[in-house]
Design a protein that fits this description.
Blueprint: E1 10-14, H1 18-29, E2 33-37, H2 41-50, E3 55-56, E4 67-72, H3 85-92, E5 97-98, H4 100-107, E6 112-117, H5 122-134, E7 140-144, E8 158-162, H6 165-168, E9 178-181, H7 189-192, H8 195-202, E10 214-218, H9 222-234, E11 238-243, E12 252-255, E13 258-261, E14 268-271, H10 281-297, H11 301-309, E15 319-324, E16 327-331, H12 338-347, E17 351-356, E18 358-359, E19 374-380, H13 387-391, E20 397-399, H14 403-417, E21 423-426, E22 430-431, H15 439-452
Parallel strand pairs: 1-2, 1-4, 2-3, 4-5, 6-8, 6-9, 7-8, 9-10, 10-11, 11-12, 16-21, 17-19, 17-21, 19-20
Antiparallel strand pairs: 12-13, 13-14, 15-16, 18-22
Helix pairs in contact: 5-10, 5-11, 10-11
């Protein structure tokens, strides 16, 4: 993304993670002069190697009077617990502060923008919308808080952007044609200070929408349901309620695995039950939200449902790999705590559960109500010192020195016992660092083991 409008202008960049580096590259290629910094010396060093054409300097030495804008990394405190000193300095010089999404919008104001926010389900919903749209459109780019920074996008007709509360705090003129707010639960309060501030940050996704724009809002918990009612009463844009569990009027919902579109004079329905990548109650709202966005974007019911059937799911998040000899294999390596693992245990029956690694606070005691669904448990990593005591005599379990050994035993047991719907599930409920670099490496190891059989 070349930001040609930035030519001959001077920009400051603070925060040199993925989005900061992407922003610097796009500005320099657009002809801007850039000065950058980060509080972490290792980030500055890596940036200097990657983009030697950019100047790095302490912010107090920047020429603030000549600066067009400060482009801030989403992770830099803007308001709470107190503004980062660079924020205070920029404001004292009346320098505009915004993020990379704002630069994308300045470069491509004629494009169509779909933004997805909420506490849970953003990544799946964003990926699913991108997948559906890409089935019929060539020029669709997907990313943001999920995966690729937005300034790594190519010029396109439609941008599907996962937007965190941090990113939405840094949007100034961007208008989202379709804005999705999925749900709320307490999160990032160390950054926002109060739940009210967190809610306000998320609701920036609706800022500057016009009557022809659409707000798609989940109504499965009280906060977002109240926001939906308030937005309908305000009448500033079209509002579509969505639910993963109950009927809604003039909206999209899923009930008992059946998706309902009640937006028109006649209700349209289709089953989601056979879509392996969208199993589980938590995915019902994601499917309803993605469907609503694609439908508003102009796609037909038939096209949307056909695309959903081919959605591969997110890697390492209840990723259905396939089945062999009557046994399913699911990679849920991203489940690094009990709350995340609970979603998988809720979804499947007759589970051959591979778990373990570095236990989190609280361990797996909150999952005991799902133990009747577990046929065998295969414990790896540091968790072998504590998890067996939780299982005791409730669940057949054993310790294994490696993921490979655990996989082999789980496969053999599942194939031998022949329970209907049996699933070999990697859902560790633990961090990976005792045996792997990260959850991605752990999940990929599981994928390779499946491919080998």
């Amino acid at each position: 993304m070349k930001l040609t409008f930035a030519a001959q202008h001077h920009y400051g960049i603070f925060g040199l993670g993925k989005s900061g580096v992407s922003t610097a590259r796009a500005l320099v290629e657009g002809g801007a002069s850039v000065v950058a910094w980060d509080d972490k010396p290792e980030h500055v060093t890596a940036f200097q190697k990657e983009l030697p054409a950019c100047r790095t300097a302490l912010p107090e030495t920047w020429d603030w009077k000549e600066m067009k804008a400060l482009v801030l990394s989403p992770g830099v405190p803007l308001t709470h617990p107190k503004p980062h000193p660079i924020v205070t300095r920029a404001k004292s010089y009346h320098v505009p502060i915004f993020g990379d999404i704002e630069l994308l919008y300045q470069a491509r104001p004629q494009a169509r923008y779909i933004a997805i926010t909420g506490t849970n389900g953003k990544s799946t919903t964003t990926s699913l919308i991108g997948h559906i749209l890409a089935s019929v459109e060539r020029e669709v780019e997907v990313g943001g808080n999920l995966g690729r920074p937005v300034l790594d996008f190519k010029p396109a007709k439609t941008y599907v952007i996962e937007a965190s509360s941090y990113q939405l705090d840094l949007v100034r003129s961007t208008r989202f044609n379709i804005a999705l707010l999925l749900n709320f639960s307490p999160d990032h309060l160390d950054r926002h200070g109060t739940m009210a501030e967190y809610i306000a940050a998320k609701c920036h996704v609706f800022d500057r929408q016009l009557p022809e724009d659409t707000a798609i809002i989940g109504v499965d918990e009280p906060i977002s349901e109240a926001i939906c009612r308030e937005r309908i009463a305000r009448g500033a844009q079209r509002v579509i309620p969505i639910s993963g569990s109950r009927p809604v009027q003039r909206g999209v919902y899923v009930e008992n695995g059946i998706l309902h579109n009640s937006l028109g004079a006649q209700e349209i329905t289709s089953s989601l039950k056979e879509i392996k990548s969208l199993q589980g109650d938590h995915n019902a709202q994601n499917a309803a939200a993605a469907y609503a966005a694609a439908f508003v974007h102009g796609l037909s019911h038939e096209v949307i449902m056909a695309a959903m059937q081919t959605f591969p799911g997110l890697a390492h998040r209840m990723q259905w790999l396939g089945a062999r000899r009557g046994v399913q294999y699911v990679n849920d390596s991203k489940a690094t705590n009990a709350n995340a693992t609970e979603k998988a245990l809720m979804t499947y029956d007759n589970i051959y559960w591979i778990l373990g690694g570095i236990p989190k606070e609280g361990g797996i005691t909150s999952l005991t109500k799902y133990f009747p669904k577990i046929r065998h448990a295969y414990i790896i990593g540091e968790a072998i010192s504590s998890f067996p005591q939780v299982f005791e005599e409730q669940v057949l379990h054993a310790n294994y020195p490696s993921l490979t050994r655990a996989f082999d035993e789980a496969r053999a047991d599942a194939e031998r016992e022949k329970y209907p719907g049996a699933v070999v599930l990697l859902s560790p409920a633990c961090a990976s660092f005792d045996q792997f670099k990260n959850f991605e490496e752990r999940g990929q190891a599981f994928v390779q083991l499946f491919k080998q059989i």
